[in-house]
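Deliverable D5.2: sample structural annotation.
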Amino acid sequence: MNEVIWVDAEGMTFENTVARKLRRLLSESGATEDLCEGMRLALKVNTAEVGYEYGLRPGFLRTVAEVVTAATQTRPVICDGLKLIDYWQQTKGNTFMKIASGQGYSNETLSGHFVINGGFSGDEGDLFPCELPESELGGVEVGTAVCRSDALWVLSHVTLHPLFGLSGALLNGGFDALVARAKTRLLKDVNPYPFNGQRTPTEKLKAFQRRALESLFGVRTSVEGRVFFINYLWDITPQPEYFPYSEAPLVENLGFMASRDPVALDSATFDLIRQEAHGAKDIKDVNFTDLLNKAETLGLGSTNRTIRHLS
């Protein structure tokens, strides 16, 4: 049974801020135990598109970066990938950095080296095997910021997701860590922007979900299994951050969860959201419970978990 650590958002005081809660989460979960001086660590984050109003504050990520720097004596690389549509019809790398900078994301505010996951072109990466029998993908191209690091921490702003059910550890740690070209390959016959009214048939949606789960094996291989996951349950919106808009959060501030097991972490996250949202069901065409069971069957982790709740 795998443990998930949950630090809630209750009891905020001068002595018990978000930063202190995050530091306690990392301490209690033993996140830095396998880090040593000189290690290169990548933090995979979610940056928001223009029009999405609920992105995480840079300070929420900076606190984690500072903990990493203290443990490794090396500033981490903080990265995200290009969005799939360039709404502003500029060079995608320029657009990404301009949007991120406008929302306050920079080397200084994040206390790390902020870069595009797949290099400035979005397609710079190396190929790694998914190491699964009967794998459809065979391998995936993992972005250079991730695959050329010694370890990876996946920092996910949790939202609902129209293709995957939940944007959390499983999706952000796998599909979202790939180069842009690989993302396009995984999205074969799938519309990532269903707000235009075009819905993907169920069988094609399930095929994408399987490919997205497979991709996490490739990402894990690229850092020799050294992956740690943090889910930020803060302003949990119906739309993911790559959308150019969002409705108001279904649930606002539930705190932060962490684990080395992405299946256990997303399972605990999803159960808490449903509980706090008064029984919210799986989003539209996605049965996230079935998806978690599929991830467990593939060997990505376990739905059999315990939650250690800290205030």
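Annotation notes: The chain has a mean pLDDT of 93. The chain has ten helices and twelve strands.
The annotation will be released with the project's public dataset once the embargo ends.
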